[in-house]
Automatic annotation (TrEMBL), chain A:
GO terms for molecular function: guanyl-nucleotide exchange factor activity; molecular adaptor activity. It holds the Pfam family Robl_LC7. The lineage of its organism: Bacteria, Thermotogati, Deinococcota, Deinococci, Deinococcales. It comes from Deinococcus humi. It comes from the Bacteria. InterPro entries: LAMTOR2-like, Roadblock/LAMTOR2_dom. Residues 16-109 form the Roadblock/LAMTOR2 domain. One of its GO terms (biological process) is positive regulation of TOR signaling. This is Putative regulator of Ras-like GTPase activity (Roadblock/LC7/MglB family).
UniProtKB/TrEMBL annotation, chain B:
It comes from Deinococcus humi. Pfam families: Arf. The keyword Oxidoreductase does not apply. It comes from the Bacteria. This is Gliding-motility protein MglA. GO terms for molecular function: GTP binding; GTPase activity. Keywords: GTP-binding, Nucleotide-binding.
Amino acid sequence: MIEPSLALYGEAYARVDALIQELLDAAGVRYGLLVDRKGFVLSHKEALWAPRPPALDSVATLVASNAAATAALANMLGERTFSEQIHQGENGTLYVESVGDQALLTLIFDSSVPLGKVKVYSKKTVPQLAAILDELKDLPEIQLDSDFSAGATSLLDDLLG
Amino acid sequence: MSTINFAAREINCKIVYYGPGMSGKTTNLKQVFSKVPGHLRGEMVSLATEDERTLFFDFLPLDLGSVQGFKTRFHLYTVPGQVFYNASRKLILRGVDGIVFVADSAPNRLRANAESMRNLRENLAEHGINVRDVPIVLQINKRDLPDALPASMIRAVIDPRGELQLFEAMADKGVGVFETLKTVSRLVLERLSQTK
C-alpha cells in the first residue's frame, strides 16, 4: 500500500502540515489533504479518532481529475475556474477548495460536522497555504546527477524484472 | 513539468498510455497490476462503462523506492481511446512525463492508429508541449491476430521517420508489457538527471 511519506523535510512543508493539523482540530474534520493538480499528494493529516483512510493515492487522483473536468466545464461557461466543490453524501462530505493555481485542499468529514464551520475555517487556511506554496516556487531547482539515473534504473530492474 | 517535490523529497512521474479505442491500454495496466507485488503498487482505479470501455481514465501508482534520498514513484494512466472522448483525453495528458502509444495490429484499425497519433500531437501542442520534449515509446499490440499487419507497415504510418523505440506485444498474455514500461520509465528518469 502506497502512502505519502510522513517524514517531511523542508521547513515549508512542516508549516503546511501544521496548518492542516490546525484546520483538522478546529473544524472537526476526519482527513485533510493537500493535493497538487496532477493528482499527487503533497501533504496529509488525519484526526486521531478517525478510522483508517481510504487509499489516498486514489483519492488524490480522483479529486484532481474531478477538478480538471470541472475547470474545463467552467471554461465553457465563461468562468476561469470553479474554486470550490462540495460533494455531500448521506454520511459524509468531500470538500475541495483551490489553493492558488497548483494545489487543492481536500477535506473529508462526516455528517455531524456543519459544512459552514468547515468553510469558515478553510477560507482562513487557504491563503496561508497559498503563501507557503508561492515561496516554494522561488527555491532553486534540484540537480540530479547520473548516479541518480543509475540508481533508479537498477531499482527499475528489480521492479520490472 | 513539476515532477520533483524537493521539499518533501519525492519524485513523481506521470506516464500515460495513449492509442486508439480497444488497442489494449487498459489491458497493459491490468497486467502490470497483476504482476507487481502488492507492497510496491497501490490500488488500480478504473472509470469505465458497464461493458468495461474506459470512460475517463485508469490509474495505477507504482513505488520504485528511494534513490539518493528521493522517494520515486510512477503514476500510470490510460486515456479513453474513442474519438469522441477528446475533452477528457486532453485533461489526462496534463503534466505528462512519458507516453506509451499502444497501436492495434488489426488491418481495419490502421487508420485509427494514424488518427490517434495525430490527435496526440494536437493535444500535446495545446498543452504547449513539443512532441520531441516528451519521451514516447511505441507498442504494437495484438501481434497474435491471424491477420495482423507487419509491424513495419504500422510503424510507417504512426512513426514514418522511425525515431521511436518500438515493442511488439500481446498485452493480454503479458508479452511485451514490462519491456515497454521499463523503457519509457528509463527514458523519463534519464531526462530527470539531464542538466537543465
